[in-house]
Amino acid sequence: MKSNSCFSVLPTPRFGLTVKYSGYLGNWNKLFCSNGSSKYPRLMKLGKDITLWGLEIGLLSMTKGEAALFVLTPEYAYGQRGCPPSIPPNTTVLFKVEVLDFIDSEECDAFFELTYEQRDRLPLEKVLKVAATEREFGNYFFYKQCFKIAKDRYKRALSILGHSSSSKAEQSQINASKLLLFLNLSLTYLKLERADQALKYGELALEMDQGNAKALFRCGQACLYMREYSKSRDFLIRAQCIQPFNRDINNELKKLA
C-alpha cells in the first residue's frame, strides 16, 4: 500500500496498528491487494508501511475494532500516474479496512532517537511510559505467538529502565516495571523452550518480590523442564502455599509427581 513516489504525503503521527484490508478497482469487482488470508496480520506503522494519503487520513479517524469503507479519488490514492500494472492512471480505488489493534509508538520512536545523555535527563514518568509501551508491543507479539520478537521487545523495555532514581519512591516505580518484564521474559523463554533463561528471569523477579506466586511458578516450570525435580518441587510448593487453589500450580505439581 505505497503511494506514488512523486505524490506528496502529509506527515502523520507514528502509530503501530494491525489492519485487515482489501483494495478494489471499479465497483468492488476487481481485488488488487489484500491481507485477508493472514491469520495474524503484521504490525504496521502509518507513514512507514502505510503511506497512501487517503488511507492514512481514514485510519487516523478510526478506533480499535472499527470497520470502514473508503473511496479514494486519485489525488488521495495513486495520483495521475497510477501504479502499473495493477493501478491504471487517474484511478479511484476502494478500500475495506478493519482496525484490529492499535499502539501509539510515537513517544517510543522519539525516545530512541535521543542520545543516552538526553534520555537520562527525561522525567521518570516519561521513561516509565515508554517502557510500558514497549511492553505492550511485546504483549502484542506474544499473543500472536511471535515469541522471539516478543522477547526482544521485553528486553528493549528493560534496557530503558536503567534510569537513575533520586528517591526510594522512584526506585520502587522502576522495580515494579522491571518485575512485570522479568515475569514476561520468564514465560516467553518457556515458550521458546529456553528453560535456563526462564529460570534466570524468574529468579530475578523473586529478588524483587520473594512471595510472587507467578515467579515461583515460572521457576518451578523451568526446573521441571530441566529435570531438576527437587528444585522444581521447592518452587512449586512455595507457590502453592501462597495460592493453594491455583489450578495451574496444582496441575504442575501433579505432573511433577
From TrEMBL:
<dbReference type="GO" id="GO:0003755">
    <property type="term" value="F:peptidyl-prolyl cis-trans isomerase activity"/>
</dbReference>
<dbReference type="InterPro" id="IPR019734">
    <property type="entry name" value="TPR_rpt"/>
</dbReference>
<dbReference type="GO" id="GO:0007283">
    <property type="term" value="P:spermatogenesis"/>
</dbReference>
<dbReference type="GO" id="GO:0005737">
    <property type="term" value="C:cytoplasm"/>
</dbReference>
<keyword id="KW-0802">TPR repeat</keyword>
<keyword id="KW-0413">Isomerase</keyword>
<dbReference type="InterPro" id="IPR001179">
    <property type="entry name" value="PPIase_FKBP_dom"/>
</dbReference>
<dbReference type="GO" id="GO:0051879">
    <property type="term" value="F:Hsp90 protein binding"/>
</dbReference>
<feature type="domain" description="PPIase FKBP-type">
    <location>
        <begin position="14"/>
        <end position="103"/>
    </location>
</feature>
<comment type="similarity">
    <text>Belongs to the FKBP6 family.</text>
</comment>
<keyword id="KW-0677">Repeat</keyword>
<dbReference type="GO" id="GO:0034587">
    <property type="term" value="P:piRNA processing"/>
</dbReference>
<protein>
    <recommendedName>
        <fullName>peptidylprolyl isomerase</fullName>
        <ecNumber>5.2.1.8</ecNumber>
    </recommendedName>
</protein>
<dbReference type="InterPro" id="IPR011990">
    <property type="entry name" value="TPR-like_helical_dom_sf"/>
</dbReference>
<dbReference type="Pfam" id="PF00254">
    <property type="entry name" value="FKBP_C"/>
</dbReference>
<dbReference type="InterPro" id="IPR042282">
    <property type="entry name" value="FKBP6/shu"/>
</dbReference>
<dbReference type="InterPro" id="IPR046357">
    <property type="entry name" value="PPIase_dom_sf"/>
</dbReference>
<keyword id="KW-0697">Rotamase</keyword>
